[in-house]
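Possible regression after last week's pipeline update?

I re-ran a chain I had predicted before the update to compare outputs. Posting the input and the new output here so someone can diff against the archived version. Not blocking, just want to make sure nothing changed silently.
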Amino acid sequence: MSFETLGLSADLVRAVAEHGYTTPTPIQTQAIPAVLAGGDLMAGAQTGTGKTAGFVLPILQLLASRPGAVTSSGRKPVRVLILAPTRELAAQIEESVRVYGKYSKCSSTVVFGGVSINPQMILLKRGIDILVATPGRLLDLQQQRAVDLSHIEILVLDEADRMLDMGFIRDIKRILAFLPKRRQNLLFSATFSAEIKALADGLLNAPAMIEVARRNSTVEIISQKVHPVDRDRKRELLAYLIKKNQWHQVLVFMRTKHGANRLAEQLNKDGITALAIHGNKSQGARTRALAEFKSGSLQVLCATDIAARGIDIDQLPHVVNYELPNVPEDYVHRIGRTGRAGASGEAISLVCVDEHVFLADIERLIKREIEQEVIEGFTPDPHAKAEPILQRQGRGQGQGQGRGQPRQQTRGGGQGQQRSGAAAAGRGKPGGGGHGQGQKQGQAQGQRQGQGAGPGQRSAAKPGQSQGRPNAAAPARPRHPGEAPAKSQHWRDSGSKAQPGRANPQGARPGAPAAAPRSGAPAGGAARKIVYRAGGRPR
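New output (post-update):
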């Protein structure tokens, strides 16, 4: 089957052929006719099988066959909205729109965070047909009334599973409220889950269902292998593999941004050119690093899961899981960066004893055992004990991190105790066996919420004791008339002017009335405590 038989125009077929494609992939073969039919679509396929062209090509065909409307202000309205979870993926989609629409009259642009919003507003005022956006920046533009979404004809949610993982569901619902009720909806995802299907039930109207591969499966052409190694020798083993096998283009996945930065620095010291790409990097730095990696001048690119979404490199030979993901589905997305468009690829995972649980979850998801090979000289210690992996899995690294709520996840021993201890202590109650970080966080929260002294009250805890600890409080002791008040408290006599920052503005005068706490003060007492907030305002 060829692209001509799918109902595409001669201009689109010509642009696709110039890009080097002559035969459509399975997802394109099914998705293109479904989109051209004008109905809603829910499609899933393995990463790297051509999902982007599967919706971009028929959208360009539909826009060319329909006359565009004109707003009351005379500007061309946005007719197609494509939402993507990350900046890199949004930029890749918009690039595909320009490449495939080379001979069409459709205009397009991409908007995302991390760069100035003003140039984006100027482009939108000129009028465009296709807008590719990340949810956060699109809402920023909508709040400034820089974009009109009331004329959208087609809505596309690409990588919908990642958008849900990053906490974009609320943003998506807010965006849907600005769109017209009658429109064509297309949902594309590399993996299907119960959450994705729940989103589709509320968004799509009698959609066509396309799933060209088994759910959450991996590309069979990718060679997968596990190298067991001690946790402290991973960097040494990675450098050894790169130099011995003469790898010139390696994408390395890390769990955290700090880990990506540190590994890139260490590899550079080993004589291997490397850069890190993650959400804390500026958009310019991310673009430069990706451009150098694609051109081959950069040997290793250390990336986090979210920042790597949208990295599309032709014939990328090697992907290395320096750290296994704690979400099994992310493994499918990671190794999908190689073996794209039918090319072969290799996925290597460096696994220490701490990650055996992660490996078992991944093998259970993909329904196959991954071959293990111990590298000579890097045999792991058989007596090593697993340690819990504690990390902040923000789900918003990159584009969505400011809008989602970071979660703290642990794997290994002590998980239940930390969570139960933190939860109970956070309510100001005993932690029920909580230890370590979870107990400290719970005690701090309990001190603020459950045990903290309210306005006008003296703290009930003895000096040196934490108010968040259970049974740490002692009965309040009345201050002796001759005792100076604490420096942190502010007092004044009747008729005197309050002076913040001084313990007793009137000094210790003979015959001066004794100051006492408000709770339990004598009925005729003339002294009272004034506690000042920041800025000198009494509370």
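Follow-up from reviewer: compared with the archived run. Confidence is low (pLDDT under 50) at residues 392-475, 487-508, 514-525. Marking as no regression found.
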